[in-house]
Amino acid sequence: MKIATYNVNSINARLPIVLRWLEETKPDVVCLQELKSIQENYPDEVLRDAGYESIWHGQKSWNGVAILSRLGKPEEICRALPGDPDDTHSRYIEAKINEVIVSCLYLPNGNPAPGPKFDYKLRWLDRLIVHAQALLDQKIPIVLTGDFNVIPTEIDVYKPERWVDDALFRPETRDAFRRLMAQGWTDAIRKLYPDQTIYTFWDYFRNAFGRDAGLRIDHFLLSPGLAPRLRAAGVDRQVRGWEKTSDHAPVWIEIDGN
Asked: What residues sit in the active site (predicted)?
């Protein structure tokens, strides 16, 4: 099974890019973030014509997440991260596909930090940690993936000294990510490429992609029972170089099983 995650930075604006990428790489399951589309404007029929069934949670102008599958329609479990019924942001959706739970998330950016947006990011991380443990307690295969807006270590960012005060790299953010990982999750990219410089995001400004001045903030975390089934992982960097593309590149893994 090939599973991919991609922050599309507007599904309708990037639809030609998404369709081209799907045709060229043919992932079995896709998690999308930052749809920037209300529920009714999601291009369900177009994606179905491309071979993918979808579940999605849209939001006007901002956020939005979706799970696509060409292995049958995803069996939706929930479309909000538990723990705060007043949080109306469309940042989380979860489904079962071929006996694997796929959790797609778009974690808050948190800037400027410190401040209310950073406080929201940390609360969201705390809720994620609680829910992630509840998932692990089920003892079934789980993929936790998406745009985490977390730079885990210095190797994951170009010139880390420039990011010390950014919400993606502040000590509180990295500490929360470490607490999540300590539950037993495996970072798929780092499992296969422990020391390699790998980025998943390059800003539109200052020729960041051309200079390879990037960040690794899109992650695949695998539950203990699923991690031994990991066979390959990578980043489709070439997509970031296409015209009118997202500032993120798709990330993917391959695991044993249908």
From this structure: 106, 147, 248
